[in-house]
From TrEMBL:
Catalytic reactions on record: GDP-alpha-D-mannose = GDP-4-dehydro-alpha-D-rhamnose + H2O
Gene: gmd
Keyword entries, A-Z: Lyase, NADP
Keyword Ligase carried by entry: no
Cofactor(s) needed: NADP(+)
A Pfam family annotated for this UniProt entry: GDP_Man_Dehyd
EC numbers, comma separated: 4.2.1.47
Gene3D superfamilies per the UniProt record, alphabetical: NAD(P)-binding Rossmann-like Domain, UDP-galactose 4-epimerase, domain 1
Domain spans labelled NAD(P)-binding: 5-344
Presence of the UniProt keyword NADP in the record: yes
Family assignment from sequence similarity: Belongs to the NAD(P)-dependent epimerase/dehydratase family. GDP-mannose 4,6-dehydratase subfamily.
First-level EC class: lyase
Name recorded for this polypeptide: GDP-mannose 4,6-dehydratase
GO molecular function, one term: GDP-mannose 4,6-dehydratase activity
Natural source organism: Nitrosomonas communis
Amino acid sequence: MKKALITGVTGQDGSYLAGYLLEKGYEVHGIKRRTSLFNTDRIDHLYQDPHVENRRFVLHHGDLTDSSSLIRIIQQVQPDEIYNLAAQSHVGVSFEEPEYTANSDGLGTLRILEAIRILGLEKKTRFYQASTSELYGLVQEIPQKETTPFYPRSPYAVAKLYAYWITVNYREAYGMYACNGILFNHESPVRGETFVTRKITRALARIKLGLQDCLYLGNLDAKRDWGHARDYVEMQWLMLQQNQPEDFVIATGVQYSVRDFVNAAADVLGIKIRWEGQGVGEKGYWVSPSTSSMGAGDEKLIVAVDSRYFRPTEVETLLGDPTKAKEKLGWQPRTSFAQLVSEMVREDLKAAERDDLVKRHGFAVFDYHE
Ligand code: NDP
Ligand code: GDR
């Protein structure tokens, strides 16, 4: 039975990958950080009681900023494959926590590679690094492929640039099977709530049910190549099953703006938006057919641009060219943009309906701000 170790197992990709590898018959080990509240919501469905014999899903406490924990866990598990998915993964937050982001996302990668080497596992353990389309930043070529020059535009992207090159360096210097998946944005119903797609689907579902008034966003003109996390984790696994380690771009090859995403999500909910103004003054109004409380012809402000969500340096446009992955890995994204948006909205609508039920039965009168 093959053993895999996943850092960032409690995150979006970690949860999909753990499920995928368990289905494939792997023994899966995950590293989670110590937190004051439970942080395992995304993997609770995979949980196996530590008292059960021969369990195939095991969690370890550790942190990418703590070499001692990484060496201990890798020594204990002796994994065939390591997937380094852990990161401070929010680009906007990286401007506020640049040093921590460099430590966890940049040096964290080095710590794992060094642990593999110190433990003499260079020929046994295959290593996957979660690289990112953010490396292209201020894009030098459209669409972006494996050979497109990098131009990172955030502390996050600069940290990930270090991680990318240290992975290449350990492959070349020590003959390790180490590779980078340069993944473009991928989303799902368990995407973190502060990334723009999930922020939109969650807020519009709540607005639809009257639980929230307005959705505040930053740059509506930013364009991204959005795929589904479920599809992308399969490529992470496949990259470690090749004869030679290589780096691959994984993307859909189709691009939409943030405003397109808002319109698509609103569409699923039967909300029509009229846009007015531009830049920081741009606003989106819910137009008829709308809520029962609104009269004919009334409009309701539901989207507004707030400059606090703008970044000091923005990545305006990303569009991937996944030709290499198509040819060598047989990559074919299975989920379209419309299907992705629809799945996310429907899941958030279910959650909003639960909240609404609680509220209508008088349980949501408690206000944390009172
Ligand atoms: P998430 O933010 O959902 O998950 C990140 C994971 O890393 C969480 O489990 C988090 O733990 C953990 N983590 C954060 N800091 C540390 C640390 N210091 N030590 C140990 N664990 C830590 O990210 P995604 O699942 O979306 O992304 C997975 C990886 O892929 C990340 O490296 C990201 O940068 C990269 N990536 C993501 C893309 C995307 O579109 N999703 C595209 C390209 C690359 P906790 O749950 O406790 O917060
Ligand atoms: P990104 O994702 O920065 O591409 O990084 P995010 O969803 O945060 O932003 C995408 C674009 O939307 C614009 N935007 C907003 N973003 C957020 N978060 N909140 C807003 O209110 C908002 N309004 C507009 C952003 O400016 C940006 O242009 C994600 C992460 O998963 C990284 O870890 C990963 O490496 C890359 O995708 C590929």
